[in-house]
Specification:
Shape: globular
Distance between the termini: 28 Å
Order of helices and strands: HHHHHHHH
Number of strands: 0
Structural class: mainly alpha
Length: 261
């Protein structure tokens, strides 16, 4: 996990100059976290409506349903603009850097930038999910944090190896032809192994959630929300694993270092 953090910080400094562009991209990542919290709130709202439908009169139920759909649309539209605006932020940042790059280097940096911001957004989403779980059930949140750290350690080790493998494949590219299936196979296998480890952790968490629910330590509404939140967390880690491996493939810092050597 620490390796992932160090690599992301180094990549961020390499890609984006000092100044307002860094703050813009960090702000976009925070927006992604806010959207994730909003999605969990939507889940909580929906669960409350479904499980306590009889507690509302018809007028209040109608307003609640309208509010639910309005809140859901706001999160979708916010996500749409957040993901599109980052393209403009990349372009302005790269122009401000005024670096002389070949077309190949420029393509790598764009690929790196997309994956880096994806990972930053996914990381802030994980923090938001952890805090939300802590609010709903501290015991589940503590166990979830331990499981999450173990899974991220596995993903981090895969990422470290993938950076070395991709650097080696890049170095071999000019001397020996590397078949495309080998390039894709090593990256996809690493990405899906990370996703598989996340799935194993999620399975354990769902077992714990079921036990706590049967034991009466979590309300039905919170059980449903945590279940959906655990599924969301699994999706976030799986996507992060895939983004990390794509980042390793497009890592222009490694290419530059190889060229210098």
């Amino acid at each position: 996990m620490l390796f992932i953090c160090r690599e992301m910080i180094a990549g961020f400094r390499h890609l984006f100059p000092k100044g307002r562009f860094r703050f813009v991209l960090i702000f976009l990542s925070l927006i992604a976290a806010t959207i994730s919290v909003s999605e969990l709130l939507v889940m909580k709202f929906f669960a409350t409506l479904v499980l306590h439908e009889g507690d509302f009169d018809s007028k209040a139920l109608t307003l609640a349903v309208i509010g639910f759909f309005a809140f859901f649309m706001v999160t979708r539209v916010s996500q749409y603009y957040q993901r599109n605006y980052r393209v403009k932020a990349f372009a302005r940042s790269f122009r401000a850097a005024k670096k002389d790059r070949t077309m190949k280097e420029e393509n790598r940096e764009w690929a790196m930038a997309f994956e880096l911001t994806n990972i930053l957004s996914l990381g802030t989403q994980l923090v938001a999910i952890l805090l939300f779980f802590l609010f709903l059930n501290p015991l589940f949140a503590i166990v979830n944090t331990v499981v999450l750290l173990l899974v991220l350690q596995v993903v981090g080790n895969l990422f470290r190896k993938q950076i070395a493998i991709q650097a080696e494949l890049t170095a071999m590219g000019g001397k020996k032809k590397v078949k495309p299936d080998k390039r894709y196979a090593v990256r996809i296998k690493a990405a899906e192994t990370g996703a598989l480890s996340s799935g194993a952790g999620t399975l354990f968490l769902l077992g714990l959630l079921l036990f706590l629910s049967i034991d009466g330590q979590i309300t039905p509404a919170n059980t449903l929300v945590i279940f959906l939140g655990a599924r969301l967390q699994n999706s976030v880690i799986s996507n992060a694993s895939r983004s990390l491996m794509r980042y390793a493939k497009s890592n222009s810092r490694t290419v530059v270092d190889d060229d210098i050597e």
